[in-house]
Amino acid sequence: MPDLWQDAMDHAVSLARTAGTLVREAVQNDMKVMLKSSSVDLVTKTDQKVEKLILESVKEKFPTHSFIGEESVAAGEPCKLSDSPTWIVDPVDGTTNFVHGYPFVAVSIGFAVNKKLEFGVVYSCIEDKMYTARRGKGAFCNGQPLQVSDQKEINQSIIATEFGSDRHVEVVDKIFSSMRNILCLPVHGIRGVGSAAINMCLVASGCVEAYYEMGIHCWDIAAGVVIVEEAGGVLMDVDGGPLDLMSRRVIAANNKMIAERISEQIDACAPLRDDRHSVEK
Ligand code: LIP
């Protein structure tokens, strides 16, 4: 990777820190909560303000780069990954947590070139933990190297997942049947902090063996993908195939064996792909 991307990564870290300060300040104050696709799909002025700050700064410093951001897509921008250097941004990952003051909220910035993710920055801003990874250079939290767990037994593992924001009963049934199958393997426990990005960083940190979810978006996981891989972990689709960033399904695990055991238990659903959303909504 040319050093050019290091400049972009340094800028991403600095933007994440600035954005995190805005999020921390906003969490203390009253906030206006708005709805997106449903009454449980929340957005606030802070999501929009943080995305605007990141978007404007990227456009100014890297005018040729492309941008995919959660709130830009919600406002009608396309969600298409091209070969162009592309910033994939979730300004507030864990918006529901943010609204309720539940202390796991992240700014997530992934960066892809030729459709391959090159670096990821996740700032867990209430905890003040800055997770960073650049392809081929390792993963770090506040400068300390990260390593996934070496656990090989699924029945000695903790697995993270989330319920997402789709409340259609057939989707909820699949989420519960998947979770029941995994819980009864048995595993030591099932957890979830309410932020896909932070769940992935917990896999990279070695304190949960795997995280899976159906219904996430590319901006929730782009940065986490690099952080997990650079900490020695693996990514997979819930059907056991390769991860497809736009498919809205992910397994991130400490190793292939654990990822495959989870995949075998999942009652898969197929949410509308991110790259079809703008066409079909
Ligand atoms: C959220 C994720 C969460 C997932 C939700 C949603 P948002 O992101 O981080 O883990 O369950 O479906 O995608 O909307 O707070 O940026």
TrEMBL record:
Signal peptide: none annotated. GO terms for biological process: inositol biosynthetic process; phosphatidylinositol phosphate biosynthetic process; signal transduction. Homodimer. Its EC number is 3.1.3.25. The lineage of its organism: Eukaryota, Metazoa, Chordata, Craniata, Vertebrata. This is Inositol-1-monophosphatase. Its main location: cytoplasm. Belongs to the inositol monophosphatase superfamily. The gene is IMPA1. InterPro entries: IMPase, Inositol_monoP_metal-BS, Inositol_monoPase_Li-sen, Inositol_monophosphatase-like, Inositol_monophosphatase_CS. Mg(2+) 2 binds at D90, D93, D220. Mg(2+) 1 binds at E70. It catalyses: 1D-myo-inositol 5-phosphate + H2O = myo-inositol + phosphate; D-glucose 6-phosphate + H2O = D-glucose + phosphate; scyllo-inositol 1-phosphate + H2O = scyllo-inositol + phosphate; 1D-myo-inositol 4-phosphate + H2O = myo-inositol + phosphate. Keywords: Cytoplasm, Hydrolase, Lithium, Magnesium, Metal-binding. One of its GO terms (cellular component) is cytoplasm. It is found in: Cytoplasm. Its cofactor is Mg(2+). One of its GO terms (molecular function) is inositol monophosphate 1-phosphatase activity. Pathway: Polyol metabolism; myo-inositol biosynthesis; myo-inositol from D-glucose 6-phosphate: step 2/2. The keyword Lyase does not apply. It is an enzyme of class 3 (hydrolase).
